[in-house]
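task queued by scheduler; priority normal; single chain, no ligands, no partner chains; default sampling; output format set to structure tokens
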Amino acid sequence: MILKKHKKKISIKDFSKHLFWDVNRDKLDLERSKKTIITNVLDYGLINDWNMIYNYYGIDEIAQAVINLKYLDEKSIVFVSLLSKIPKEKFLCYTTKQLNPKHWEF
């Protein structure tokens, strides 16, 4: 028997206010806006924000939400890759970055 993961009850208002400066927070839905929420937490979130998405979505759902993104911060790629055990080369944002190298990497 496969047990369904129990999602911890959270709302958009629980996240740091700075994460959704560019959208109307009241219109975000934890399921329909999953990619936006996960991406903003990975790029700009605090540890409490990370803990909330990790407890709500789980690492597999987080990885699947970002695996086909064209851009994600390098640290976020490596972090999700390490936790999900998916090689970073499988992430579109990693391969896209490799195809378009910058002159200076800071």
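post-processing summary
- Residues 51 and 68 are 22 Å apart (CA to CA).
- Residues 34-44 form the longest helix (11 residues).
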